Amino acid sequence: MSHCEELLVRVGRGLHAALPRPSRHPIKALDAKGMELASSDAELRAALFRLVDVTPACRSHDDLARHLTEYLKEVDERPQALQAAMRVAHTAPGRAALGAAAATGVRHMAHRFIVGESPQAALGVLEGLWKEGSACSVDLLGEATFTSEEADRYAARCEEALEVLSAAARSWPQRPLLEADSAGPLPRVNLSVKVSALTPLMRPEAPHVGRDDAAQRLRPLLRRARDLGAHLHIDMESLDALETTEELVFDLLGEPEFGDGPSAGVVLQAYLRDSGRQLDRMLEWARASERRPPLTVRLVKGAYWDHEVVEARQHGWAPPVFEVKAESDRNFEELTRRLLDERLTKDSAGKPDPWHPLLRVAIASHNIRSLASAIAHNRASGGEDHDLELQVLRGLGDELGVAIAASGLRVRSYCPVGDLVAGMAYLVRRLLENTSNDSFLGEQQRGASIDELLAAP
Amino acid sequence: MPNPANPANPVHDRAAPFANEPVLELRRAPVRDSLTAALAELDARLPLHAPIMIGGERGADSGFESTDPSAPERVVAYAGRATESDAGAAVAAASRGFREWSARGAAERAEVLVRAAATLRERRLELAALMVRECAKPWPEADADVCEAIDFLQYYARAAVALERGPELVQVPGERNTMRYVPRGVVAVISPWNFPLAIPTGMVAAGLATGNAVVLKPAEQSPACALALVEALHGAGLPPDALSLLPGFGEVGAALVSHPGVHTIAFTGSGAVGLEIVQAAAETPDGQGHVKRVVAEMGGKNCVIVDSDADIDEVVPALVGSAFGFAGQKCSAASRVIAHEAVHDALVERLAGAVDVLAVGPPERFGTDMGPVIECEAQERVLAYAREAGQAGRIAASAAAPSGGWYCPPTVACDLDPDARVLREEVFGPLLTVEAAANVDVACETVEALPFALTAGLFSRSPATVERVAARLPVGNLYVNRGITGAMVGRQPFGGNRRSGIGSKAGGPDYLLQFVEPRVVTENTMRHGLVVE
Fold first, then answer.
1. pLDDT at B11
2. Which of residues 191-210 of A touch B (CB under 8 A)?
3. What 8-state DSSP symbol labels residue B328?
């Protein structure tokens, strides 16, 4: 085993040991049971997704119960509890009770992933996370944007979130690890925004149209973030939005008024076959840029895998994503190494200059192996722990987040905020990720040993 | 220039099973650049010439012209104007060509079609550019049109080979029964301008694959696109007499329909012309030794039902694409939305906002959502319907349209008088009406009351509702939880019922049967008490 691999395994075991013991809380146990059930049976999983998906559109408990039983009819082997549920649905009172139970179940599931209905409502959770050693990035969930008014409303919500969070975060206690790295201070307030929500004009075949329209709404947000000292992170979505997003961010951050701020970031999706070239472009831009705050790059696996593969298959295109999970995982590690190695500038003597990096690196994953590889490579190449950020998703990576914080590393939780209706698309995607057969969390849930979890992909 | 066509799924080999030709991946900048370059090359060659071609002879190549709908002063092609006597000469050539062509087996004919498909594939950028110019098709749809043309050639080539084997019959000792399909003779194809390559290719390919000879009369708006098809087939080894091209107007189409040497008429176009063809083709003058068969795809008044449990996030873009893609000039285009009263108002508001931001402009510009309609008369017709809709109800959205070409604003109308003409008639342009219904069953009644039955859409997340509506609606193509245009060869065989069409579905397994005659041979294999098989 190479030195690096040894270090990786040691780090990984450390993280694993720091995981809180499985919760005995009955609600959490129920969650785990439900997830297990859903991941064990594809038909049941489909029924669950469809239920979650339709809940906000149902007008009554009766309506919801009818949908639920229709979905369950398509499941061949129904567990006894569901069999019973279908029987009670034959009567109106039965349907009302079943619908109420289903609605409660979905709401409960939503609350696991969504920290509050508004930034104001989310403050308690966010402050709690901060105190326990986790920073956050807030993501405002919403319906799709088709109209200018919807784009304006989203931008206004973003601005409100920046204000509300900034006002509240001032009184949070000091957490040095979360507030600075070698390059300087890190904002307490961190907001993730989606370009597709900032414009109704996303056109994959005409990136300039969406870019120009979104720029008019992103520019004021950047100003507000700069003035409030907040961080703005531009999320990445499906490949259809990639060129628009990339051009938008590079163009706007290059404008002179943003030379000193705000702190800003972009996302690199490791499942894209082209992600290496995407990183090249980020580095090239960063080298040419005279901005002071380094661009943060959040490395993720990518959340639109099914969409990308299905779209490509339907059009007869080569899928733009790795189709074998291990390839994605290997690429994730490769990009991690590149990010950590190539982020540094050299001083006049040709030595790496940790105070003026080209990029700040954030590694977002629930895969212990992926996280461990980042930590190990950073240490092995002489980097400071505080120059690496790790990120997890609220609701999925909570325990991992606790373990990372307990290990003295900086962790940030990606926290969706918004109402149930608006959050459903997000929720379904997260469920899909969590219950897919080859997901890391799935493996972990099935009780894979730490050695298996840390095996090279 | 790099080949922008994705090599992931090429079907160059006839032995390979059918797969749809992949559309271009326009989200990639180099692909877009290749199209822009192809358009510049085409522009340098304009105007083109589309001659009358009978028996491989190039005839007159001026008489009328096709123009660019987004800049009507630009002539795209000069075309010969075929006459009644040209129609007679073309049918005579076809009768000669039929003997040679039908004598070849289906496999050999299929090779020709597949070679023609390869030519279209090689010329795909140029052909897409031609559709941008001649019919103002925006790039994504122009490219899809070329792909569909390739698909028709590939699909019917394979289907004809399978059809030649004939069906299995019941056999008993002492008797041999065989059934096979033979070509009917001469097919007159009368094609529209809205799919200026794909639709003529589909009808011509079906006729040729089964061994018929074809005379093609394309729409007067798009003669150059039709010429590209004829050139590809002739270049692929089709006997010149087996396919003639008659650019021109209604009179040459009428001459073909009434010609006693024509056996089958394949038509796609308006209901009015379609019904005239059905009537005229029913005549059997002395000396005509057969009854003509008509395959006609006509109009629609395509409705989309939106139930209360629909995902409006999916409904809005699907409706915008289906109603305003290619300015609503598809027979499958969405024209009438019937929404559950619980979601009606919210839907109208979001739909209107989405239409307000549509970019109307020249089709060659990436980022244009909608180009002009095909010609001045179409513009006047659509604007008249929109005015009527305004009088009979409320205009919820009407995006700005530039001047200069035959532009119409994409329009959403609602709160309409239930008797408004615009709710019943085919507009064939960018006008979408939205009305409320108490529930899905009421909406189904509305759809059933229409004489048309081409496409329809349903948005619902209830499996029981989907099943009930699918069983009930008479339409040829029902699309559930998606847009209602863009039928793919082999995946969504396409065609309407009732007054939307007669004949089976294009791009489907039974389409070719319309171009053949079944023949059964029964042979006694007993000789003096001995079976001699």
1. 43
2. 200-201, 203-209
3. G
